[in-house]
Amino acid sequence: MRKTTEVIFADTQVMFVAGDPTKPIPEQAQYTFAALEARLASLKGRRFFGVLVGDEYRACSSITEEDKLTELPHMTWTIPGGKYARTEIPDWEAHTEQIGPAFEELCSRLNVDPTRPGIEYYRSQKELFLMVPVK
To answer: What is the pLDDT of residues 11-55, one digit of tens each?
Structure first.
């Protein structure tokens, strides 16, 4: 069992690329992040999230102070905040196969709030937080 903590996640405005919900999540994630990053002038100073809305995967980037809201290259949305259970996958790039099972483990043992999405917060190239909304 992974160590789990509860955190309060603030509503976060992002720009995003949505996947095709008929495709597997890993395939959606790969496509959407490639499409998201391809149209950003720089990745520096941005926070990145993978968000599961039903069967649709959304690759998301925070909106920075330098961004002009009327000139963003992608659609915008707000990731809903609230109480989330969080666990970490260290060195996630070498362990992507652990993401799905870790989400399933979190969901199976918590009072999950189905009205909000599950979130992958890519804090760095080595640190990934998985967050499941709880009541």
So the answer is: 999 999 999 999 999 999 999 999 999 999 888 889 999 999 999
Number of domains the chain contains: 1
Structural domain range at position 110: 5-133
77-129 residue pLDDT tens: 999 999 999 999 989 989 989 999 998 888 887 789 999 999 999 998 889 99
pTM comes to 0.92
- CATH code for position 22: 3.20.80.10
What does the H/E/C string look like for the chain? CCCCEEEEECCEEEEEEECCCCCCHHHHHHHHHHHHHHCCCCCCCCCEEEEEECCEEEEEEECCCCCCHHHCCCEEEEECCEEEEEEEEECHHHCHHHHHHHHHHHHHCCCECCCCCEEEEECCCCEEEEEEEEC
